[in-house]
Amino acid sequence: MPFPQTWTEELVAEWLDLRGYLVKVNLPVVTPEEGGRRAPDIVGARINQDTLEIIHVEVGQLSESKDKNIKRIINKFSEDVCNRVKEYFKQLLNFTSDNVEYYKIYVAKYPKNLAEYREEVSKLNIEVKSLKDFIYEDVLPTSRQWKEHPPHLPKTKGIALPESHWMLYLTDFIFENFIENR
Q1: How is 4-58 classified by DSSP, letter by letter?
Q2: CATH number for the domain formed by residue range(s) 7-179
Q3: 96-126: string of b/e by CB count within 10 Å (b at 16+)?
Q4: pLDDT tens profile 71-114
Q5: Taking 50 as the threshold, does the pLDDT of residue 133 lie above it?
Q6: CB-based contact 175:140 (threshold 8 Å)
Q7: What values do phi and psi take at 67, rounded to 5?
Q8: Which of 43, 103, 110, 173 is deepest in the core (most CB within 10 A)?
Q9: DSSP 3-state percent helix, strand, coil across the chain (nearest 5)
């Protein structure tokens, strides 16, 4: 099984796993129309009632010119890549319906002028978030919800996140001990 290449990719993978998604990291997809092979950073899928939900997250830095960065973001979520990911999970999960919801998120580690990027790529249903916003708007609420409604009854006093989700555990610890109680 491939491992995330960065701590931010690990955080995204753990977040998806805690939400009940089957998670694949650096999923190799062949893109004959684009000529070659791609590997989306993190992709999670789950069947919710009669819908296949896919969340495709790319993590990166916006360190080049605006035009190059926008082109890179768009290429990471190309129609060919997204179609290959859909087909992979449909086959893996034996899902035969065409009812698929595909969410595309780009998490920028060191963002600059995100509003410009959001405007450009939102037309393609790509959500661009700063890492800070991703942690505050997605990761921490998921951790809180899981702790309030764990999938099992705890044997000890207090509810903690799974220790195997060490990045979620760390962000939760930092938030509770250094940010929330200030």
Answers
A1: -SSHHHHHHHHHHHHTT-EEEES--EE-TTTSSEE--SEEEEEEETTEEEEEEEE
A2: 3.40.91
A3: eeeebebebbbbbbebeeeeebeebbeeeeb
A4: 999 999 999 999 999 999 999 999 999 999 999 999 999 877 88
A5: yes
A6: yes
A7: -60, -45
A8: 43
A9: 45, 20, 35
Place of tokens 């195997």: 164
Query: Looking up tokens 């495709």, which residue turns up?
Result: 56
CA-CA distance, 111 to 152, in Å (whole number)?
38
Tokens of 82: 């997204």
More confident of the two residues 86 and 31: 86
Give the three-class secondary structure for 137: helix
Give the closest residue to 56 by CA, choosing from 95, 31, 86, 34: 86
